Amino acid sequence: xxxxxxxxxxxxxxxxxxxxxxxxxxxxxxGTYLAxxxxxxxxxxxxxxxxxxxxxxxxxxxxxxxxxxxxTGLKWSFVPRQSPKPKYIVVNGDExxxxxxxxxxxxxxxxxxxxxxxxxxGRAVDAHRGWIYIRxxxxxxxxxxxxxxxxxxxxxxxxxxxxxxGFDFDLSTHTGAGAYECGEESALLxxxxxxxxxxxxxxxFPAVSGAFQCxxxxxxxxxxxxxxxxxxxxxxxxxxxxxxxxxxxKFTCLTGHVNRxxxxxxxxxxxxxxxxxxxxxxxxxxxxxKAMIPGGSSCPILTGEEAWELNMxxxxxxxxxxxxxxxxxxxxxxxxxxxxxxxxxxxxxxHESCGWCxxxxxxxxxxxxxxxxxxxxxxxxxxxxxxxxxxxxxLGRTFCPLGDAAAMPTMSIVRKFRHEFEAKLxxxxxxxxxxxxxxxxxx
Amino acid sequence: xxxxxxxTVNGKSLQAPAGTLVIDACKRAGIEIPAFCYYEGLALQAxxxxxxxxxxxxxxxxxxxxxxxxxxxVVQTESPVVVQARKSMxxxxxxxxxxxxxxxxxxxxxxxxxxxxxxGAGESRFTEMKHHVDEKQWSPVVYFDAPRCILCYRCVxxxxxxxxxKALGVTNRGAYSEITPNKGDHLDxxxxxxxxxxxxxxxxxxxxxxxxxxxxxxxxxGTICSHxxxxxxxxxxVKNDEILRGNNRDRSGINGEFLCIKGRYxxxxxxxxxxLQSPLLRSGGKLEEVSWSKALAHVAQRxxxxxxxxxxxxxxxxxxxxxxxxxxxxxxxxxxxxxPNIDHRRSGDVPALLDALHGRQGxxxxxxxxxxxxxxxxxxxxxxQQHPLLAFQTRADSRHHQAxxxxxxxxxxxxxxxxxxxxRAAAAxxxxxxxxxxxxxxxxxxxxxLFGDSxxxxxxxxxxxxxxxxxxxxxxxxxxxxxxxxxxxDMGLLPHLGPGYQAAAQTGMxxxxxxxxxxxxxxWVVGANPLAGAALASQKAFVVxxxxxxxxxxxxxxxxxxxxxxxxxxxxxxNTCGQVQRLRKAISVMGAKADLDIFGLLARGMNLDLGRAVxxxxxxxxRASVHGYNVxxxxxxxxxxxxxxxxxxxxxxAAQAHVIQSARDTLFTxxxxxxxxxxLNVVLEAPGExxxx
Amino acid sequence: MTFSPELEKRFAxxxxxxxxxxxxxxxxxxxxxxxxxxxxxxxxxKEEVAKRLNISVLEVNEVVGYYTMMRKKRMGETxxxxxxxxxxxxxxxDQLWERACQKLGIGHNEVTADGKISLxxxxxxxxxxxxxxxxxxxxxxxxVTPEQLDKLIxxxxxx
Lengths: 443, 693, 159
Ligand SMILES: Cc1cc2nc3c(=O)[nH]c(=O)nc-3n(C[C@H](O)[C@H](O)[C@H](O)COP(=O)(O)O)c2cc1C
Ligand code: SF4
Ligand code: FES
Hints:
The complex is a heterotrimer. Chain A is of the alpha/beta class. Chain A has helices spanning about 30-35, 40-45, 50-60, 70-75, 100-110, 110-125, 140-155, 185-190, 220-235, 235-240, 270-280, 305-310, 315-320, 340-350, 360-375, 380-395, 400-415, 420-425, 430-440, and strands at about 85-95, 125-135, 170-175, 215-220, 250-255, 260-265, 270, 290-295, 300-305, 310, 330-335. In chain A, helix 14 packs antiparallel against helix 15 (about 360-375). Chain B is about 30% helix and about 20% strand. Chain B has a 7-stranded mixed sheet with strand order 15-14-25-24-23-16-17. In chain B, helix 8 runs parallel beside helix 19 (about 595-605). Bound molecules: flavin mononucleotide, iron/sulfur cluster (SF4) and FE2/S2 (inorganic) cluster (FES).
């Protein structure tokens, strides 16, 4: 009944850890989960002290899978356990970074794995309540999650004195309503509290003052989903799956001009070449790779040549002046119109800018208008320079990283594919789709 | 406060207490960092990004409005990167800002204009279409022009945090975000106009002021609002002897920049078409216009005759008149006319409070004390309606100092929102209700107590004794209605008490007694309207009224002398707390005279030697003779407020029963005057139910 | 205003899921689930939700204006959302969009005259690996071909 998101069998080059139940019949059901090592990680964690749990997570080298890649164990250790306030767990299931569609797979096929991860985090920071914030468009996933939560309550894996461990935990879903900015952690918390999704001033960070102004652990769906495996296998074993500074596997969404698009579980440090040629089955139509966005549309773009030699991990991408991001890989073949691509990306950030701060609010709109003209062939050389200038003026100066997310891809596309912008100058082709966006008011 | 932190700004070593924000620390050191959204006293936003500075070792520019100083921090506020960032912020801001400065009310006073001038680019690289939205009218006094808005959220914050109203919010998203009023297309609020004044640009404009003038064409006079007893400073913008606006953007005065609708807009009664411009004399049963000399001569003659024949006078003074006028009037009555019958409409039992506090110094709270108090006890008054400034201070105290607020009132009041305890009790039971709060009040540690007319007579002493028994240090404010109600008491407009609450040589009739006395020979009413709700028993009484309008009382008069408003004269007034401030003359009008001038002319006409009727000279006499009024002149002269503390021992309580009752005005009324304010009337007629009587 | 018993039950359970005194947290879920029944954010709905959560209508309006999925006006019985964001664009999502516009004679956030179908050009809906993707109300359709889109629209028109 739900659309299938998986190829029939995993690719042989995948390292299947989190995804090992995905292809089982009834993989969503708690029965299936329990029959396949489900909740064992939690039981193990309930024998450990909070410090031991956090140490294990630190040992795993797990880094946040939401985009920023912050070490998860370290983040959990910031929660002031002695604080008299209740502590909370919040799951970021907003997944709206263009190119990213992995949390969807994790929830659709194995919701209990997520619940278990949340329980372990709860044990680690002495939290007894959690919310899974899921973007509004994923209504069916919210239903799936609700069902799983109900099952867990019914079977004693949520609620009071879970499985006799003396640990209580309550969990529920919370729907978003269409706003990319609500993926940013502090805006998400505002949204959770029933407000506009506008980011908060930090510090204080959520670990100290998060949901309802209480200490909060906030992580991405995939981050939590990795925790049960870490508990079961042990942090070091999990770390060993990846490379020295980045442990484990990472869900990678192959999108764009590749033969076998899909979501794959790849060990960290997986070579880009292998990822495209073997896992992805090569560029569509045997074409050449012109450009690659490694982790969602907010990352600086790589040319095909640059991308080809890299590995899918945090440091390798940082060295190439881009980011591993959220795992949304966007591949563009040689025929791709890079001006159009730049325009489409900026249109997104303009649409999603929350409007709080000047440079993002005004900068994205201006860039959209400029790029629209350049795409329609009614721009000038000066306009091309201006695009770079404006993006530069936004970078690092906005209230939250959305402004950077808009500036970085734009700057890099203009810099690396300037000749394509120049080639369009004076070639008037006014597209209606572009115009309709240009005049839409509130979208 | 923690040890001072040492840091460096632009190569200069500075110190500031830990926790100080870089923007504030710099400001104190004379280094200005531009900002739109940062606003002292309001919640932090960090939204405009104008205040970005360079901090050594930080990977990017940081917003100085949310950055606390740190030991050894090295900051640059004028480095090339900072200057460039600032310039680019302005460029972004101006993209969708209509450059209609020539017709914009804010032109010349606009922060965006100033910043563009100082930091901005002289040319624009923006050649796209601007995003346009039509202007909207949100209320009779508030207009909103969305394209001009720079989304600094000052208006949203002042309305929520400052006024406690929360009538403004933000809707839509991104570049289309728009400030929105609480009723979708209109406002239901206090109509105080704070949002308009705090707006750095011309997005919010005033229905009263818009398109009237260019700001630089006005003269500005800082004086005291003529309405309620709180005594806000209002700076009047005047062109050709017409008041065009009121505000207090320079934050001088006890109110900072706070003003309610009355202080900001309700000066317009002075130019009402029914304003009297010539004396009126009754002839053949009708009031007819006569010259000043004829009218004054007539009054002097009749007063002289009545005095000579040992007739009975009744003198009623006003609650808006200056201290000088009230002092002179009681002197005129007692020494000039030889009558003890002098009174005014009393709205709070000031004498009882001063008596209860006898022997103490500094037991009266100033407006500032209220802001700094650890606890605030409000008894029997709807502060937001009747004393908007004190309500504003209470909220600010709660917001900035986490003050414990207690409300003991008949019905719900806005202060409940910030109250730790709220008790509902009928007026008669409020003292008991206060007593029931005992332990909580004690826990507050320190109190400012505000009470209205529900606590009067013996109850005042009981209240003070009760709080004494708790051992909580307390300061008091006895709430009275109008701009100089307090001064009227202090100046001895009381039948049993002279200036400074000295027992009067002879106790006279109270106001009610005068009106009820069938054998009264003369009634002299100055700036009051006692016949609005009462009848004059004496048929024969010769009635003289000094007023701006033909009020109910003036209609009964034999002679009506048109008087000047508070904005047309000099003098001093004392607010409900006891703070003395100076009125400055903003305009002159044809035909009217200041009450003090009228007294002087009458005294001359009657050959009385009461001293010169000149404000400064009378004030000197007050300083010399009224206990507690020996306030430092420089403070008053420079527009400051000086506390008059006239407590000097026991006050002889009057044996007679006198009426003390507040008029219970609302935000949109002000005794009989509000009838002559177009602004207050249109606002009352506008849709909206939130704060209507 | 009355809602279905199921929705009332959901509302009743919702309040307990947030800390005491912080029930404003129910605002977005309440509006979203109610919108499913009511169709869009009517004044009546906003007032009702404000009343139930003891907040002002202004606070509701602030939120409704912010979120894209909160519908400011009535949409079609079927709301057709076509993604044209980068990953879908690379699989000609923009052409699907133009095709739908032409076929239906309506544009972004518009409704057909018979009220049956409304169109929205949406930002990334999290179906990037299965592009081009569309959403028919809450249902995802992946790897959509122009022919499939035509058939979908024809079926909806007939329904
Ligand atoms: C504009 C913006 C959008 C974001 N969107 C998401 C998102 O959709 N999902 C997510 O998990 N993290 C998102 N993030 C990152 C979060 O702010 C946060 O870093 C993350 O949820 C923390 O979890 P992690 O440590 O497990 O990655 C976003 C950040 C920004 C600035
Ligand atoms: S960068 Fe500014 S406007 Fe953009 S989303 Fe963040 S806070 Fe909002
Ligand atoms: S780009 Fe279309 S679903 Fe992400």
